[in-house]
Design brief:
216 residues; alpha+beta; seven-stranded mixed β-sheet; two-stranded antiparallel ribbon; 9 helices; disordered C terminus
Length: 216
């Protein structure tokens, strides 16, 4: 089914929050999902897969242990691309100073790529990410893509290497709408539903209609 980018962002934000992410990270996840979808990638499918995989898992278990380490890794031996990506954006200056930052065992690595845009805008220089035959680079607005499609869609990258500054080669053109699978949309809807407060007798009486009063 085709959805507008606004619909994708709104659904992704509520789903990420329903999955237990903070509102701030949920908002960043939604913007990232929209951004990937705007370049023709299955952002919603990947977000739905990640939220399902990490459901009920404490965020600390899939977060980098140390941002000062040569190689970032997580206690659960697999890392959330959303948490790691947000940390990468915060460490943009360190990335430029080192030239590269390496992460191990990143789930759905493509979901970390939008956070490179924030890092690139902070640095004023393009940032690239490479894993298993895939290479993407962005200056925060444009996206350049090289590699096989299967590599972009992998659910686990053994190593993901970010570098700056980066060459911009293989520019991909954005789209205005995205095709979303019914299954992933339903998965996101189920997570989003968790953000709805359960109805109480008081809320029902305050809702539309006359409640227990009868004005006739």
């Amino acid at each position: 089914m085709s959805h507008s980018l606004n619909e994708i962002e709104a659904m992704s934000k509520r789903a990420a929050r329903g999955a237990g992410l903070s509102w701030g990270l949920a908002e960043e996840a939604a913007k990232g999902t929209r951004w990937l979808s705007s370049f023709g990638f299955p952002g919603t499918e990947m977000l739905a897969g990640l939220l399902t995989m990490n459901d009920r898992i404490p965020p600390i278990d899939v977060s980098p242990v140390s941002l000062r380490a040569e190689i970032w890794h997580a206690p659960a031996r697999r890392m959330s691309p959303l948490i790691a990506g947000a940390a990468l954006s915060d460490c943009a200056v360190r990335l430029l100073e080192r030239g590269r930052i390496t992460m191990e065992n990143v789930n759905f690595p493509l979901l970390a790529v939008p956070f490179m845009g924030g890092a690139a805008l902070r640095l004023g220089r393009p940032v690239a990410a490479e894993w298993q035959g895939a290479r993407l680079a962005t200056d925060g607005k444009r996206l350049c893509v090289q590699g096989e499609s299967d590599a972009f869609l992998t659910q686990l990258a053994d190593q993901m290497v970010f570098s700056a500054p980066a060459d911009m080669t293989g520019q991909k053109e954005p789209v205005m709408r995205a095709n979303v699978s019914d299954e992933s949309w339903e998965q996101l809807s189920q997570f989003a539903h968790r953000t709805f407060a359960p109805a109480t007798e008081e809320s029902r009486l305050r809702g539309a209609g006359a409640g227990l009063s009868d004005n006739d």
